[in-house]
Amino acid sequence: MFGSVSTRESLTESETRWAGFEAEAMPHVPSLFRIAMWLTRNQADAEDLVQETLTEGLGSFHRFAHGTNCRAWLTSIMYHRQSKKKRASTRLHLVSDAEEFIAETVAFEPPTPQNVTDEEVLHALEHLPRAFQEVVVLADVEELSYKEIAAALDIPVGTVMSRISRGRKMLRAELASYAQAHGFGRAG
Amino acid sequence: MQCQEFREIADSYLGNELIVETNHAIISHLEYCAECRRELTARRELRARLRQAFLNASENQMRPEFTERLNTQLHARALGKRDTRAATFGTSRSSIRLGRKASLALAACLLLAMAIGFVAVRQRDSSVTSRESIETELAQSAVSDHRDCAVHFRLAEKPIDLEAAGRKYDPVYINLTKAVLMDQGGAMADAEFVEAHSCVLGGRRFAHIVFNYHGRLVSFLVTDSGDPNGTNGGGSSAIAQPQVNACSQFDGYQVSCFQTVRHAVFVVSDLSESENLALARALAPSVYAHITRTERAA
After folding, report:
1. pLDDT by residue (tens digit) across B201-256?
2. B133-297 carries CATH number 3.40.1000
């Protein structure tokens, strides 16, 4: 008898937790999937990463500060999970100094060509150093704030700001050179 | 506000990251500066194009069955229920009736066996897919390096001396040039050495040897394949010779490649597929011997 009351209470508590999580977190699944696809470049891995992220998010949902950006919170979980995986599976590392140097050498800001396709835009993005790609994607595509990006990537806000600025500049240069090479593109 | 100052904070303005006073200063500046208005429009358009490209990309669309499965699994987990489709979530429930114990145990065994089988297949598939994905990514990186470094020479980071890079980053780079340029049974007779260095593209370091072959630029590239377990194609010590393949074609460039335990080796050019492959096969024995010898010593 006591057991069944306890079970009912527990179930109600679980249902409430699920309802909260469903309302706050689940609408962000498409966004999380896009980020996961960008991180893994593989559909099965992206699905796994989204599932792991949401499972972890569900388990620690009591720590989520209601009223803050749940998408940013989940993105942060996803990045931390992916970092752990990468550390475990590869000895590769990004050469940050070199990347900063590459960015510094993009001295001009060419106009954005108008007639490039979506594929060409994504292709141009691929040519950016990884560290610049990720801040540009999180800021421009997922529309996270500088502070949220800094928390997700575990880097200072100032670094986010400079990488976004340089990343966009490099993207413009890449698109302009692409348009020039293919003989099209209107100076915007 | 001056134009230079505007350009420095224009991105923050677009991201709504500035305080109200600065926003007002920008708006005031934009009212009389047509050049900065154009600049702001260009930056806004770039953001919109990028977002649109991401949202429209077919590979970024979720499979409906994944969405449904995810929702069911998470819901079951939240309520502490077993989800038979997930087979990984939930715990045994105590309300199983005694009369059905045997059949439920059998069903559980079957489910477990299916789950183990599923996981094993999934892991194998995932491992193969992951390895193929890494190989493709490496080959694309090699092509990008050939194009941006050898052909256009537009790498912003100055390449460094190959031998120095060998001492600092990867001992395989030391004497690699000799291994490439040594007499390959006449294969390199028509090749003219251009330069050897180590360069970085997209965070990946390459040993890069460039030569002219029948009037075309050819890149010979070696990079750490990031496989600490040595599960690459060249991993078995029983394999005395590399398996050289015409592995892909990107942006009009041919890529032939082979792997050692810890390195991926590429020959990239705009020669024909057969010419590129023949060249890679001619170079492979001495290079493979050099790299594997160094890897064993490391």
Report:
1. 878 899 999 888 877 788 999 999 876 555 555 444 444 677 888 877 777 788 99
2. yes
The residue among A149, A105, A108 whose CA lies nearest residue A131 is: A149
Best of A54, A69, A112 to disrupt the B interface (most B CBs within 10 Å) is A112
Is the four-CA dihedral B171, B177, B178, B184 of positive or negative sign? positive
**ipTM confidence:** 0.77
d(CA B234, CA B293) in angstroms, rounded, equals 13
Of A18, A140, A172, Cβ closest to residue B78? A18
pTM for this entry: 0.50
Output phi, psi for B35, to 5 deg: -60, -45
pLDDT in tens, A78-127: 988 887 776 555 443 444 444 444 444 444 455 666 677 888 888 888 88
**CA–CA gap between residue A37 and residue A30 (Å, rounded):** 10
Helices (H), ranges, B34-186 = 34-56, 64-78, 101-145, 162-168, 176-181
Distance from CA of B17 to the nearest CA of A (A): 7
Rounded Cα distance between B267 and B74, Å, is 47
B273/A contact by beta carbon, under 8 A: no
